[in-house]
Design goal:
The structure is a single chain. With 472 residues, this protein is an all-alpha fold. Helix content is 78%, strand content 2%. Strands 1-2 form a two-stranded antiparallel sheet. A hairpin with a 2-residue loop joins strand 1 and strand 2. The longest helix has 37 residues.
């Protein structure tokens, strides 16, 4: 089979191959970020809301965006295995195997989404309570997340289709669809919140419905594109007949990555609970800082999407040294670009926060959030390594080591340090211990230490080369 997308063409510098895949993903990620930031702006500038209501909406958004990402990680049950198989077999010249993997991956995503709806909607109230959210903040979060869970199957189907196209080297099609959904999403979220033509709108939960409708339209569009055929992949009704061997193969690759994701979700829930215990200003400041940090993270995530097929296809083509060279080139591209954006975030932290906190009553959010956004600038190389090297290892089918790195980083470093650095007194079975009392800054300091440790572990694994011998 001719090399249609050039990811295994050693005549082209690795960074150019990576950029050809990554730049559409970066723009796509940027569009998603624009949607999230626009929702922040709507809540922060709600003229009809009191200062307390604005603060409650900002605080609720932090939890909602966190948990929306967390429930979306259920898609890893399909996406990692599909991506590894499609990239490896396309690199090796197989055309039938990738198509089978896509169909069975979509079936896995649908089942995972339906199960997620059942579990999530039933346990949502308990989850909100565990995150130490009460009053108006808890009510708003429950309403928003109820919509998110209801639309989960659609979200996971779309994520699996995007992962399959990216593994085949086609990131342009998802970008074009993302452009369309963003054009729809932003006004729908505004209308859902404020209403239109005499309709009063739904308030905070209206933004969730606007985003959900836009995501559903995007999923339908990308499935339609696959049905017509893209990048050597085509959907057919016959292909959706369950094939136990292919499903088992996908799950064998994806299950360790899913456990990694669930471990990260559990760690993030505990981390978020620690942040929420610091009050509404810390909750809101944490969320806004994460939103601006995500500007840099879009590049890291885009490079991660590029790293997986570059590594997988070159391994499939029998070129492990080229796979290694490509992985390191993508890491350098991500680290350099994210570090540059981090410098800008450090310098512009105050005006970036002021954009979402225009009122005097929101000044506590600036006081809590500006220092942590500046701190994040120093961990950009580590964050790049976590994204890119984790994706490169998963693209090679080595999904167990990233799981170990998450367990060590989150549960042995981030969470214990979070409580010790953020609280003045840490209570436990051992009694009361003196903490540092740094508040939200202490939480983010613990996060940076976790990122640097995990990045070092992943770099050591990648340089060691054992991933080059993993069979998928």
């Amino acid at each position: 089979m001719p090399d249609r997308i050039g990811l295994t063409d050693a005549r082209i510098p690795p960074w150019r191959r990576a950029w050809a895949v990554a730049w559409p993903v970066a723009l796509q990620q940027g569009l998603g970020l624009a949607v999230g930031l626009s929702a922040r702006w709507i809540a922060g500038h709600a003229a009809a809301a009191s200062a307390g209501e604005q603060l409650a909406m900002q605080a609720a958004q932090t939890t909602c965006f966190y948990l929306s990402w967390m429930v979306g990680t259920l898609g890893i049950l399909a996406t990692v295995g599909v991506s590894a198989i499609v990239s490896r077999e396309l690199g090796g010249g197989d055309e039938a195997g990738p198509a089978q993997a896509v169909h069975q991956g979509l079936l896995i995503a649908l089942v995972a989404g339906v199960c997620g709806v059942a579990v999530g909607c039933g346990g949502l109230a308990d989850l909100i309570g565990a995150l130490q959210l009460d009053g108006a903040v808890g009510r708003l979060a429950r309403e928003y997340l109820g919509v998110t869970f209801a639309l989960l199957p659609i979200q996971l189907l779309g994520a699996t289709a995007v992962a399959a196209l990216a593994a085949a080297g086609d990131t342009g099609t998802p970008l074009r669809i993302a452009l369309g959904t963003t054009v729809v999403n932003v006004p729908l979220a505004w209308i859902g919140f404020h209403g239109l033509a005499g309709w009063p709108g739904l308030g905070f939960v209206g933004m969730a419905w606007g985003t959900g409708i836009a995501q559903a339209s995007g999923t339908l569009a990308i499935l339609w594109c696959l049905a017509r055929g893209r990048a050597g992949l085509r959907l057919s009704l016959e292909g959706f007949r369950p094939r136990g061997r292919v499903i088992a193969r996908i799950l064998r690759i994806s299950l360790p990555a899913t456990l990694e994701s669930l471990a990260m979700v559990a760690g993030q829930i505990l981390f978020l609970a620690a942040v929420n215990g610091l009050g509404d200003a810390a909750r809101a400041g944490h969320g806004i800082a994460l939103g601006w940090e995500a500007v840099a993270e879009t590049l890291g995530l885009a490079c991660a999407v590029a790293a997986a097929p570059l590594v997988g296809q070159n391994l499939g083509a029998g070129r492990p040294d080229e796979a290694r060279r490509c992985g390191l080139a993508v890491l350098g591209l991500a680290a350099a670009g994210m570090s540059l954006i981090g410098v800008l975030l450090h310098v512009l932290a105050v005006p970036l926060f002021a954009l979402y906190c225009p009122g005097e009553a929101q000044r506590p959010i600036l006081a809590a959030g500006v220092p942590v956004l500046r701190l994040a600038a120093f961990s950009m190389p580590a964050l790049a390594a976590c994204h890119v090297l984790g994706a490169a290892l998963r693209g090679a089918g080595d999904t167990r080591f990233p799981l170990l790195a998450v367990w060590v980083g989150f549960f042995l470093v981030r969470l214990p340090l979070t409580w010790w650095l953020s609280r003045s007194v840490v209570s436990g079975p051992w009694g009361d211990l003196a903490g540092c009392g740094w508040g939200l800054y202490g939480c983010w300091m613990a996060m940076q230490m976790d990122l640097w440790l995990r990045s070092g572990l992943l770099l050591g694994r990648f340089l060691g080369g054992r991933w080059q011998k993993v069979r998928v």
